[in-house]
Amino acid sequence: MDFDRFFEGELAKLHQAGNYRVFADLERHRGGFPRATRHRADGTTQDVTVWCSNDYLGMGQNPKVLAAMRETLDLSGAGAGGTRNISGTNHYHVLLENELADLHGKEAALLFSSGYVSNWAALGTLAAKIPGIIVYSDAKNHASMIEGIRHSRAEKRLFKHNSPEDLARLMAADDPKAPKLVAFESVYSMDGDIAPIKEILDVAEAFGALTYIDEVHAVGMYGPRGGGVAEREGLMHRIDVIEGTLGKAFGVMGGYITGSAALVDFVRSYASGFIFTTAIPPALAAGARASIIHLKESRDERRLHQENVAKVRAGLDRRGIPHMPNPSHIVPVRVGDAAKCKWISDILLDNYGIYVQPINYPTVPVKTERLRITPTPLHTDEDIKHLVEGLSDLWSQCALARAVA
Ligand SMILES: *Cc1c(COP(=O)(O)O)cnc(C)c1O
Fold first, then answer.
1. How far does residue 55's CA lie from ligand 1's centre (Å)?
2. Which residues have a Cβ under 8 Å from the Cβ of 213 and sit 6 or more positions away?
3. Whose CA is nearest to atom 6 of ligand 1?
4. Any idea what the Cα angle at residue 361 is, between residues 3 and 330, rounded to 5°?
5. Is 214's C-beta closer than 6 angstroms to any atom of ligand 1?
6. Cβ of 114 less than 6 Å from ligand 1
7. Could you read off the pLDDT of 84-106 as tens digits, one per residue?
8. How many CB atoms lie within 10 A of CB 333?
9. Which of 143, 235, 243, 379 has the largest count of CB atoms under 10 Å?
């Protein structure tokens, strides 16, 4: 077989559909976020403002986080030195796990290389090892949860997105004696909608199910201490597993689960994706911990974040740029056409210095292609004005429909 020809043929399909992914080559500057330098393919550079970062609060450059990382790098060196089991457990991992358990009001926490790995390994292990378990998975769950559940080979039911009614219907149709697990998210990152957590828990509890929530897009940002939407709604104690990332609002890298001591020890002891991989560097763990500690006490970032989200929405409304309504911090502007979406994104970047990555299939369904705007506390009023005016210009050039006020 001519392998390269095969690869090229498959890539050509993506180009044709307008779904070929091109990375923006960015150089972030400490103290300068959301400003960055973009390196173009021809070797030239351009100053850009980033409008699609998941470093939602700018904690990736918070001085306390950086100081903790620098200090730990100097004290402990670069890598962890092994898997957690074989010489890789550094004291910083233990401190961070204690901090995370406290954040979510749980007995224990377990770190993973990333949020993706935490979902894949935890769901994969729980669903594979609990005999006869049936997994109920929200239809819009993240790829990492889907892959974990698939890997487990457990029976799986998809319930309609954010529908406790559909979940109840599916659960009632199954053997009452079969153990059950319900897996869902709080904030869904592409539409920015939020799950009816209480109603889903009511159903899950009625059927005696284990509950698993992904709060990746909520930790650090919601709740009085940044524990997520479940904290805000006083529901953390009703959820068996709360999963999160250290890579988005906390601004560093890594993933985790929190839960009962027995459940966490079980995953620690049986999950291949936890056991057979090098632990995260001590400096990462220390930085993430500093970020969590800061956001447990400081509410300024959360308040400014929400204020800027409201300003961006108001600006778009004034110009009639339709954005999908939702109760979160994510502002999806639907273009509904892969080629136009990419074109607008390209022109915004090249001519306006505004970086918003187009979100196309398979991340979102065909015809719902969008620009996913993520305001941060560090965007200025001037930045917001520039974004809205730029979008408005291109909206006219693409002859896209405006919303009537
Ligand atoms: C980004 C994301 C993850 C993965 O987290 P990482 O730390 O980036 O690997 C998991 N779940 C959801 C819903 C996500 O959007």
1. 12
2. 183, 184, 185, 186, 195, 197, 230, 239, 241, 242, 243
3. 115
4. 135
5. yes
6. yes
7. 999 999 999 999 999 999 999 99
8. 21
9. 243
Which token pair is 213?
């929530």
Q: Which residues are catalytic?
A: 248
Q: Indicate the helix (H) or strand (E) that contains 258.
A: strand 255-259
Do 25 and 38 meet the contact criterion of CB atoms below 8 Å apart? yes
CA 389 to CA 400: how far, in whole Å? 15
The CB of 116 under 6 Å from ligand 1? The reply is yes
How many residues does this entry show for the chain? 405
Ligand 1 pocket test: which of 245, 357, 364 has the largest number of ligand atoms within 8 Å of its C-beta? 245
The angle at the Cα of 373, spanning 371 to 379, to the nearest 5 degrees, equals 145
User: Amino acid identity of 51?
Assistant: W
Left (φ > 0), alpha (ψ -120 to 50) or beta: where does 395 sit? alpha
Q: How far is the CA of 205 from the centre of ligand 1 (A)?
A: 26
CA distances 145 to 16, 115, 120, 124, Å, are 29, 10, 6, 8
Instruction: Label residue 404 by pLDDT band (50, 70, 90).
Output: low
CA of 24 to the centre of ligand 1 (A): 20
Give the CA distances from residue 116 to residues 139, 200, 241, 339, in Å, rounded to whole numbers and listed in that order.
Answer: 17, 23, 15, 29
Angstrom CA distances, 146 to 139, 141, 188, 238, 293, stand at 9, 7, 14, 23, 31
Distance 95 CA to ligand 1 centre (A): 23
Structure tokens at 55: 């470093």
220 CB within 6 A, ligand 1? no
Closest CA to 192 of 41, 330, 89, 51: 330
pTM over 0.85: yes
Query: Which sign, positive or negative, has the C-alpha torsion 328, 329, 332, 333?
Result: positive
Using a pLDDT cut of 70, give the percent of the chain over it: 100
pLDDT in tens, 142-183: 999 999 999 999 999 999 999 999 999 999 999 999 999 999
Q: How many other C-beta atoms are found inside a 10 Å radius of the C-beta of residue 362?
A: 8
* Cβ 148 under 6 angstroms from ligand 1: no
